Amino acid sequence: MVLANCAGSGGADYDAHEGSSTEEVSSANDGSSTENGSSAKEGSTTKDGSTTSESSKTEFGYDTSNDLARSVADDYDKLFKSDFSSKAMTDFADGLISKMPPGALDALAKQEGTSVEALKAELADIADASSMSSITPYLSMMDIQFTVYDNGQASTSDLNDINATLTAAGVKGGATNAVDLGAIMTITLKEDLNGVAKGTIQTQHLGNTGMLAVQIDGKWYLWAGNL
Fold this sequence. Notes:
Elements: H1 2-6, E1 13-18, H2 65-80, H3 86-97, H4 104-112, H5 116-126, E2 142-153, H6 156-168, E3 175-189, E4 200-216, E5 219-224
Antiparallel strand pairs: 1-4, 2-3, 3-4, 4-5
């Protein structure tokens, strides 16, 4: 496997296909989906050849959980095109934080007795981005596409914990819904690498990312569930 050869699998599930493509099926909490059932990355082509629309982010929050998921995928894509420097990691964390409910990070920092900067570093680790730095020398040899999707309803306990933190942050109304966010990474080799042929496509199923989409007053926001 491509990543296994470069950096180890880390326990993730892989599907490798030489010169072929894969299709993923996932459900959308807001009821929208592409033809094959997956939530397509913003601006990408779906199975029927159509393209997804621009993200519907408003000043505060997103109109659908799918829009939020696509925006999170964009943050990952930018990271994979970077040099994984300290600035790149900070930009990545800032992108995710910008999608959280206003005031939520400050409340989390106060609750944990730590700083916002410490939480930013922890957020990058939770998103499993820092582990990718080991394959940085190989990134120019790969085309990486990242998909983030609704991976099912979050637990009642998670929703209660989120609302307790939101109350501490002074966010009125609280979250009325929450779903886990899963991720799939698809890697296409642009040249031969460690005995794996050019054109091989590997799909890595990352499972839950540790992040959730939460709905507050009709809008969707990102929540770092393990903070």
